[in-house]
Every structure is written in C-alpha cells, then in structure tokens.
Amino acid sequence: MKKLTANEVRQMFLDFFESKDHTILEPASLVPVDDPTLLWINSGVATIKKYFDGTEEPPNVRLANSQKSIRTNDIENVGYTARHHTLFEMLGNFSIGDYFKEEAIVWAWELLTSKEWYAMDPEKLSVTIYPEDEEAKRIWQDVVGLPKDRIIELEENFWDIGAGPSGPNTEIFYDRGQEYNDLDENHPESFAGGENERWLEIWNIVFSQFNHLPDDTYEPLPNQNIDAGMGLERMIALSQDALTNFETDLFLPIIEKISAISDKVYGKDEVKNTSFRIIADHIRAVTFAVSDGALPSNDGRGYILRRLIRRSVLHGQKLGIREPFLTDLVPVVNEVMGDYYTSLKENEDFVKKIIKREEDRFHETLADGLAILNDLISDLEENNEKTIDGASAFKLYDTYGFPYELTEEFAQERKLAVDEAGFNQEMEAQRERARAARSTEQSMSIQSDVFKDLEEDTEFTGYTETEDTAKIIYMVADGKVQEAIEPGQRGEIVFEQTPFYAEKGGQVGDTGYVYDGSGQVVAEVLDVQSAPGGQNLHIIESVQHLDVKENYCLEIDVQRRELIKRNHTATHLMHQALRDILGEHVHQAGSLVAPDLLRFDFSHLQPVSSEEIAEIEDLVNQKIWDSIPLETIETDIKTAKDMGAQALFGEKYGEEVRVVCISDYSRELCGGTHVSNTSEIGLFKITQETGVGAGVRRIFAQTSQGAFDWLEEQLQILDQSKALLKAQTRQDVPAKIMSQQDQIKKLEAELESLKHQMANEEAESVFEDVQEIEGVRFIASVTNVNDMSQLRDLADQWKQGDFSDILVLGLEDSGKANLLVAMKPLMIEKGLKAGDLIKEISQHIKGGGGGRPDMAQAGGSYPEGLDRAIDAVSEWIQEEI
C-alpha cells in the first residue's frame, strides 16, 4: 500500500469518486439540523438520509463526502483500544437510485488495489457477505475474482435500524498479519469478520434494497441505494503502518504537544499512553464540536462535551499536569485538520475561550469534590465505617466529575473500600433514564415514490407579484398522484409558476386562495412547503373540483405577507444589531418569521441584560427610521461570500444565490421576501429573551401592528396596576410600589421580632421540662413554633447552654410532621448518635431522615404520630444506655 498522509488519503478517496461522476458534498456541522433523532452527526449517511427516504431530491444521484462524526456510546474504550474514537471521519460514497451492487463493489476494489490509487496488496483483502446475498457473492467471485475462501458468509451482515430503508451489506477486511493478532491463529474468532486484531475492517457497503415496514415485513424499495463508508483513521493507520490509529499524523502532533506540556514521554508506559490517547482524542472532538456551535452544559450534547473536557483534565493530572492546558492543544488540532476543515482556524479564538472557561470551572469543581470526598471519608473514619457507599461514589462521579477509579484511589490511601456494586447500580439507573429520554422518532422515514415522476420546476413569481395565473402540473391526495381533486378533499398541488412562498429559511409559507376563470374560489391554500425536488407544494382544501393541466388564478393573503416581510427584514436588522452589541461570536441558530411575531435563536453564553436589549432595540429602530432602501443582488456563491454576506442557519445554497443588502449594515444570503424600505417596518420591540439550550439564547420580537398591539397591552397592565395601587397617574406607579415595599419591609421586621420573642418564650417553656434516665438528661417535646427554621433556632439556643444532654423537638407544619434531634459531645463519646435516634422515632410519623452524629432531622406524613415519637425517646435511651 502507498505511504500517504491523512490529507492525501482523504483527497484520493474524493478524487476517485469525483472521477466516477459523484458530487462531492461539503462536510456538514456535527450539530444536526432539523433532526431530533440525533445528538450528533454520527456517520456520513446521517447528513443525507433525507435523500434515501425520498423526502428531498439530491443535487446528484451520485454523492461522496468526508464527514466528521461523533459517537460516544463506547467512550470507556477510547484510549484503551487501537481504534476507538469519539470523533472520526467517515469517507462515504452513495447512490440514490442509480448504480447498485456491481459498480459499488468493483469501484471499491479498484480504489483499494489499483496502482493509481491506494495500491493495496489484493492478497491481503477478504470480504464478508450476507448468506442469502447470492448477487454480491457472484460479483466478488466472478467479476472481481476473489477466491471462495476469502468470501465469508455472516448472518449479521444485514443493515436494519427499524422502519425505513434496509438491506444486506458487504465488508472489506485487510489482513495485517498474525504478528498483529491478539488471538492464537487457530482461535475460532481468528478470521476476517471475527473479534481479533489481525483482520481490520476498512469498508462497509450497504445495499439498501428493502423498505422495512411498521408491521415488521419487508418490501422492495422503489429506488435501490448504496450507502458505503470507509474509516479514514483506519486507512491512515494502514497506509502509515502504525500499530494503532494514534501513531499517525492525525494524532502524533497532538500527543507530542501533550508530551511537551507534561514532560512525559509517550510510548514508555502503557498506563500513561492511555492518558495521552484519551486527551488527544477528546480535544479533537471538543474542538470540532465547539467550532460547530455546541457548548458544554448539563444535558444533551453539552453534557457529552463537558464530560470529554473533564476526562481530559483528569487524565492530564495523571500525567502530572496541574494547570489548565487544553487550550494549548487547540492550535495543534487546527494545524492538523484545518486545511480541509477551514472553519476550525476561523473559530479558534472562540473555541479556546469556551474550553478555557470550562476547564477553569472544572478545576474549581474538582477542588469542591475533593473537599466533599474528604468530609465523607472523615465521617466514615469517625464512625468506624470502612466502605464508601455506591450512591456517594456515583454523586462524586456524576456531579463533580470524579471517575470511580479516582474515588477508589483516595479511599485506598485511607484504607477504605468503595461499594462498586452500588456504584454500578446507580450508573445503570442513569443509563436507563437516558434511554427513556431519547427521542422515539424514527431516524429515517419509509421511502415514498409519490413525487418520483415530478420533474418540472416551479417558477416563483412572488418577489414582485401577489397574484398569478398558472397551470396545475401535479396533484397528490390520499398519498397518491391524482388527475383531479374533489370538493372537500385535501391535497397537495404543484403549479408551473406561483406567487406563493414555500416555507424555508425560517419564513413560514404563504396562505391564500385559488380561483377559477370566473373568479369563484375553488380551493383555499392552507400552507406551502417544498416538494422533494424543490417545487412549491401548495397544501390546499378544495371547495370546487380541480383538474390537473387546467389553469387557475392564484392570490396570496397580501396583508399576511406584508406582516411577514416586515418581520423578516427586522430579523436581518436584529441579527446584525446582536453582533454589534454582544460581539462577533453571535451566529444564528434558528429562526421563525411569521405574521404575528419573529423568533430568533443565536449563540451567546449568558442572558442578554435589559440594558443590552434596550441598546439592540434602539439600534434596530434607528435603522428603521433611517428609511434605508433594500437591494437584492443575484450572484454566485463565491461572489456573495466575498461581499461578506452571512449565511442563515440550516439553509442550503446552490451556486446562484440572492443577497439581501440593507445598505452596508446587513448583508445576508436569503431567499425570503422583504420590504423595499426599512421604514415600512414601522416599529420594533423585543418582547422576551430566554435560554433554549447550552450557549443558545432566544429572542421574541414584534414589529409594526404587532409591536403597537403589544405596547397597548403593556399600557393596559400598567393602568390596572395604577388602579390597584390607587395612584393618580401612570408616572406615580413606581413611587407607590416603593412606598408599599418600604411598608412591607417594616411589617416583616416587626413579624420577625415577634417570632423571635415567641421562640424565646417557647424555649423557656421547653427547656424547663428536663427528664433523666440513668444519668442522661434529655428534653423531648412537641413545640408550638411556626416552622423548621424556628425549630433549628431553638436547637441553636440549646447548644449555647447546659439544659440537657439530648434534645428532641417535634413540629406539625402544614399537615406534615418534623422532628429534630441534637446530641452533646459527651453522648456521642458514649456511642449515642442523633442519626440513630431519628431513624428509630421517625417511623412513628411515617417518615425518615438522617444527619450527623450531633444533629439530625426527619420529616413525615403522619403528624398524628408526633406524641408517640416523643414518647419513644425515653425507650430508646433506656435500650442504648
């Protein structure tokens, strides 16, 4: 095999399939767009599955890509094995109803073995197939010429993820030689396709030829597809004759930087080698993910990022690195990967800022966790206990990032054990919660061919027209192509041209009516979406009979469109204002442009302050009042980018694009409809700002009529407040509120004083009732205080004096029972513990609790048992003394 760099392996794959008439797709963001079934893009096909299930038409029926992907289902194996990674690149080639088994197999063999390409030794390659796939077997044997003994039949070679496309697959394995094997040559698993280190799987070709139906049966797909994937990291390891994926030019520069920071040498100690590999793997994943807009948080993909960063820090400590260091690795990752993934270098400063903040935060959290662990160990030693319970070990792991091994290590130093079974039980419970929280939506739809014969394009005339006359070219109703739609029937219609905008780029679709030649309404247009081929698909409810190939008059709801246009242009203005006020890191993360409001999601690390919101509003309104004319430029994508035009989140662009320019202030690629002058917006008002996820904020705003109506509602609320406060004018409302707040503070102070006085009186009464058993003085009483806070105040007063050796107080509060127990040090020395006593007596109130040896409290649902609980105190003391 040729000795190639990582960039050469990737480029050779893409060049090969480009020579086979494949369109090379740009790598997609790791953060899925409009796909609730995925946390991350986890394969090459994940970005194009809409083409496989027929919901969208591809730019070419032959596609190829090199797609960055993240998988964390087996994160515990990363660094410990030769080939597990969190982030990896999948080299993929795909056929959407075009070529099938023979071309896919023959081309794979050509790329791998041809002297012009990878030049692998054909004698080192073996394949696996599905036993019933006679066609694949024939191609490998008769067309490629592979010997029978290197074609292995395996039952598991059938790709199926539930409802949707499925089919048999074939895998290609490279024989690295027995010297790489971790098994004896005669071991049952020592074969291509077995669990061993000798034969390395490099390519998997899935032949999607069936629809897996909801009733668990299969039917042939309308269009057969090819989904083929090759692991870049594995190919590079083979090309560079590396023992593992980590000894390649993808990872070694990162490992060398870690070595320089830690002053440790990679390769000498396998335990330390594992830490080097984990850090190198994780920093790649984190750098890519943050660059693509994911941010650390406590749930979802943000939790995964936080976990990767924390694992890296802990393994850095195993290498002797005590200070934050991960940001020093980001430029190395960008140097290795940045030639192909150019956005890495563009976002380097932002990525370093996020990682630094998270790493600093974890160092603080780690110190907090260590303090808690030390307290936990001290309590165990004080009580002569020898085991840290599983729940506590798990809390340290889950909340403070302590791996189980670290807790175990600290425990062993103090000659303590850890309840590993209990820890594993808590871990499994968390996994169950995670599984239950996962989306139940299917990741790929059942393939439909209802639009396969729709080849004509729709011309959109709505930039300049609000009505038009056009012929119906396609109709669907009841899931089938129709020649006519009857009155009262719902359907989907495509016209040869239309003024109706189809929902995209955040802008909702138009509504309106379809008329016949005499001006009679024949259908109401409820919504407009895009057909798989991009045509405007009118969702209608018919009033009269409609026929395909007939001409009809189309008219949009003009007033609704005008409101939408104002909100859309205001969205562009606000996007730029956010960047001006909050910083250049702000990027759109989703939007909705509707007639009644605009909603805008954007990347930002903290809530937008009221002062910042006021600045944003002022800036947008100033641009509105400046009466700036809008200009729309149609050009190619390169020229648009050179002009500085921003792309909208989740939107796809062809070579020809529209750039909406608001003077030099805002330039965005946008296919939506806009006002001709900013003055048409009238007024802009932000009505709400909130968070929707880690590092993503959401703004709701109104314009024109909506903004006016919203302001009227606020004035009505203010007038209601004025009446309730008995203020003379609206301007007097703040002063009235301040006056009432002052009055409330005085009353609260008086109330607290009275409560304190009552507590003192209660204390005098309670502390006088001292009982004694075997020389142990104790107070046990149900009190008349108001809440647990006052109960604890009594306990604090008791501690300051010498009233008794044991204090037990009860309280009924809001239908619940509460108990508090306190012990003097002399009692603890005798082996009496507050926690033991509270456990014994709390059963009478049908509750439970616990605490320290000197103080414990409990709650229960049966206040009727309080007297019995108090009576049980003397019984417990007698038994314990």
TrEMBL record:
Sequence positions that bind Zn(2+): H568, H572, C670, H674
Catalytic function, reaction form: tRNA(Ala) + L-alanine + ATP = L-alanyl-tRNA(Ala) + AMP + diphosphate
Principal subcellular localization: cytoplasm
Alphabetical list of PROSITE patterns matching this protein: AA_TRNA_LIGASE_II_ALA (PS50860)
Family annotation (Pfam families): DHHA1, tRNA-synt_2c, tRNA_SAD
GO biological process: alanyl-tRNA aminoacylation
GO cellular component: cytosol
Subcellular location: Cytoplasm
Note accompanying the cofactor annotation: Binds 1 zinc ion per subunit.
Top EC category: ligase
Entry keyword NAD: no
Cofactor: Zn(2+)
Single GO molecular function: tRNA binding
InterPro entries named among the record's database cross-references: aa-tRNA-synth_II/BPL/LPL, Ala-tRNA-lgiase_IIc, Ala-tRNA-ligase_IIc_anticod-bd, Ala-tRNA-synth_IIc_core, Ala-tRNA-synth_IIc_N, Ala-tRNA_ligase, Ala_tRNA_ligase_euk/bac, DHHA1_dom
Keywords: Aminoacyl-tRNA synthetase, ATP-binding, Coiled coil, Cytoplasm, Ligase, Metal-binding, Nucleotide-binding, Protein biosynthesis, RNA-binding, tRNA-binding, Zinc
Domain called Alanyl-transfer RNA synthetases family profile: residue spans: 4-713
EC number(s) from the headed UniProt entry: 6.1.1.7
Record family assignment: Belongs to the class-II aminoacyl-tRNA synthetase family.
Matches recorded under PANTHER family: ALANINE--TRNA LIGASE, CYTOPLASMIC, ALANYL-TRNA SYNTHETASE
Domain characteristics, as noted in the entry: Consists of three domains; the N-terminal catalytic domain, the editing domain and the C-terminal C-Ala domain. The editing domain removes incorrectly charged amino acids, while the C-Ala domain, along with tRNA(Ala), serves as a bridge to cooperatively bring together the editing and aminoacylation centers thus stimulating deacylation of misacylated tRNAs.
Function: Catalyzes the attachment of alanine to tRNA(Ala) in a two-step reaction: alanine is first activated by ATP to form Ala-AMP and then transferred to the acceptor end of tRNA(Ala). Also edits incorrectly charged Ser-tRNA(Ala) and Gly-tRNA(Ala) via its editing domain.
Official protein name in the record: Alanine--tRNA ligase
Gene name for this UniProt entry: alaS
